Amino acid sequence: MEDWVRDNLETAEKLAKLELCDHCLGRMFGKVGTGMTNDERGRMIREGLKEEGIDIPAPEFCSLCENVFDLMERFSDEVAEKINDVESDNFLVGCRVEPEVIKKEKEIWEEYGLENPESIKTELNREVGKLALPKINRAVEFKQPQVVACVDTRFADVALDIAPIFIAGRYNKLSREIPQTIWPCRVCHGKGCPRCNNTGKMYQTSVQEIIGDIALKMADGEEHFFHGMGREDIDACMLGEGRPFVLEISKPRIRDIDLDELEAEANKSELAKYNSLHFVPRGAVQLYKGSDPDKTYHVKVKAQGKVNKERVIEVSLAFKNVHIDQRTPQRVEHRRADLVRHRTIHWVEAEVTGDDTFELTLKTESGTYVKEFVSGDDGRTNPNFSEALGIPCKVETLDVLAIDYQEQPMRD
Ligand SMILES: [Zn+2]
Ligand SMILES: [Zn+2]
After folding, report:
1. Closest ligand to 105 CA?
2. What is the pLDDT confidence band of residue 3, given thresholds at 50, 70 and 90?
3. Where are the domains of the chain?
4. Residue 171 and residue 274: Cα distance in Å, rounded?
5. 237-250 vs 393-403, strand pairing mode
6. What spacing in Å lies between the alpha carbon of 58 and ligand 1's midpoint?
7. Nearest Cα to Cα of residue 19 among 56, 54, 62, 69
8. Separation of 104 CA from ligand 1 center, angstroms?
9. Cα of 134 to ligand 1 centre, how many Å?
10. Among 48, 157, 186, 271, which residue's beta carbon has the most beta carbons within 10 A?
11. Closest CA to 339 of 323, 331, 328, 330
12. Catalytically annotated residue among 213, 220, 233, 356
């Protein structure tokens, strides 16, 4: 008889009398020793008791697990079938056990003062996983599994939880008529109504949908989500190297999609272009959303009157590392809190293109309202370009030329 059995003989006898199966009996000492399964532990306990003249055979029906362990082979078949239906490098098995059983198990631990029990959930997860492993032929991953098969023990039902894939890249928006992300109809909120021609959307497409719809199909996923590093107004273009973004595809049945193909397909669009696509870990979403890089803009400006070329250039050069106070612009007042933001204009370059028109290229701190910096927004931005020039000016078109962001290597 092994020492641990001998040391626990008294408690083991009481537990065996509770009509526990070998699994459940052994599991009460599940963390004692290694290299054996709980049902092996259970059998060792019964043998130990027998040596002492106490014969308590395993019951037909276990009062704790209700013989759930008889179903493990079936669970593992179900798990393998579901997982083999999707593509992944690894997997994990999880189980949902009836709360009643978990409660009952804990009561036994407490009543008999057990110090090394294992939970039924842990045993089921491990044992079903072990049985499923040869049928699946993928690695088991505990930390960040790509697919989790969750067995509901009551119904022998297996639900798959497939981790999303994240694709980062940069986009150019070449149209002043599409938004960055899907914009649900204001009237029907996506259900479809006469206002939106039953599309459920305010705009027919978006930077998100052009690439997202293609990626979704390739990955055989459920939904796509778009996480941009900030966004531009609908009427603004995003030029240059493009704006960093992360595209998220939920429940992809195919993970390893060809990103060159995705890029090529998406770039057939005239409205938006994409570059530098690569897979990133989930953490990239927070990283991108939390970044607030400086930006370079190009704006076409119309002045309310003739402008003097030298004067425009002089005013531009004067805005070198200038701090401005911006009260929330009137145009966004209805959706943003009214407060004063402090921002820096790093530099401004000007080119006069007509009697009353000129163009500015300017680099600003993240979050600067550029249109309002030029117009002054009725004195809500101070100092501002119009006031410095002495002529009211208005931005006609705005483009983002550059987003000052260097991607750092990311780990899972
Ligand atoms: Zn049992
Ligand atoms: Zn609608």
Report:
1. 1
2. confident
3. 3-51, 68-162, 165-290, 295-403
4. 4
5. parallel
6. 10
7. 62
8. 12
9. 25
10. 48
11. 328
12. 233
- Contact predicate 121/133, CB 8 Å: no
Q: Is residue 128 a contact partner of residue 75, using CB atoms and an 8 Å limit?
A: yes
300, two tokens = 């076409």
Closest CA to 299 of 248, 254, 250, 232: 232
For residue 213, report the distance from its CA to the centre of ligand 2, in Å. 20
Q: 201 CA to middle of ligand 2, Å? A: 6
Residue 412's pLDDT is 62
Question: Minimum-distance ligand to the CA of 203?
Answer: 2
Count other Cβ atoms within 10 Å, centred on residue 18: 18
Beta strand 322-327 with 147-152: parallel, antiparallel or unpaired?
unpaired
- The identity of residue 102, as a single letter, is I
Q: Do 295-403 and 165-290 fall under one CATH topology? A: yes
Question: Which of 140, 167, 143, 408 is closest to 281 using CA atoms?
Answer: 167
**Distance from residue 46's CA to the centre of ligand 1 (Å):** 14
176: exposed, middle or buried (Cβ count in 10 Å: 0-12, 13-18, 19+) = middle
* Rounded mean pLDDT, 48-58: 93
Q: Which CATH architecture has domain 165-290?
A: 2-Layer Sandwich (3.30)
Q: Is the model's pLDDT at 13 over the cut of 80? A: yes
Instruction: Please name the fold of domain 68-162.
Output: THUMP fold (3.30.2300)
Q: Following DSSP, what letter does each residue of 28-71 receive, concatenated?
A: TTTTSSSSS-HHHHHHHHHHHHHHTT---PPPSS-TTTTTGGGG
The pair phi, psi for residue 400, each rounded to 5°, is -95, 125
CATH number of the domain at 295-403, please?
Answer: 3.30.70.3190
User: Could you tell me the end-to-end alpha-carbon distance of the chain, in angstroms, rounded to an integer?
Assistant: 47
> Residue 273 — pLDDT band, cuts 50, 70, 90?
very high
Check residue 33 and give its pLDDT.
80
Confidence tier at 112 by pLDDT (50, 70, 90): very high
Q: Is the pLDDT of residue 184 over 70?
A: yes
| Known active-site residue 7 | no
Task: Tell if the pTM clears 0.70, that is, is over it.
Answer: yes
Average pLDDT, the chain: 94
Nearest ligand for residue 189 CA: 2
Amino acid 302: pLDDT: 98
